[in-house]
Structure formats: structure tokens, C-alpha cells
Amino acid sequence: MRLRTFWRDRRGASAVEFGLLLPLFVMLILGGISVSQLMFAVNSLHFAVEEAARCGAINTTACGTLLATETYARERYSGPNVAAQFDATDAACGRRVTVSGQYRLEAGVATWNVPLSAESCFAAPLAS
Prior knowledge:
Helix content: 40-55%
Low-confidence stretches: none
Mean pLDDT: 88
Structural class: alpha+beta
Order of helices and strands: HHHEEE
Largest sheet: 3 strands, antiparallel
Distance between the termini: 99 Å
Shape: rod-shaped
Number of domains: 1
Number of helices: 3
Strand order of the largest sheet: 1-2-3
Radius of gyration: 25 Å
Number of strands: 3
């Protein structure tokens, strides 16, 4: 008789369901935050290389050398830590700036290393 009453008792069902779904919900929230930071890192890397390539091609005072252009790109990046490696070169298209790095995407118990890269080339204006 006691066993039958135990199986029909529903008073703790909500607590058990909450306990089962809470870890999944937390992983979903943490994964969403991490993906948002990843998208911010991608956007910020693209912005940094575009600004640095433009500066290297137009503003020879601030970005006259390749090292100055790389430093300018590093300063323009404002995203999360991705250990970004900036590289500036003179190419046929003008001043080319590339960057590569790696973002650690964490979603609760799962972790992925996502490679990131961006490239921009800006031509110097024609002299009149």
C-alpha cells in the first residue's frame, strides 16, 4: 500500500524536473554569451585590420612603417583576448594587414578552439 501511494505522489515532480533542466538551461545561457563574445571578436578584428590598412596607406605620419601599422592595428582591437598576431606588408594592392588568432568557445562542459583571421588591403591615393 505504501509503495502505491509513493508512486502516485506528485508533490516533488516540479523540483525533479527543475533539477534535470537547470544544467541544460545554464549551458544554453553560457554558450549564448560565449558565441556573442566570439562574434564581437570577429567584428573587432575586421575593424582593426581595415583601420590599420587605411592608416598605412593614407596616414604616413602615424603608420609610415610596417611596425607602426601593426602597432596601430593592435591598438584598434578592443575585443576579448584571442592572442592576435598582426602582420603588415606592402603588396600590389597597397598596404595589406592580416591578423590571426584563436578564440576559446566555452559552453558549460564543452570547449572548442575557434581559429580567427582577417585581412584587409588599402591602396594609397593617386598623386595628382
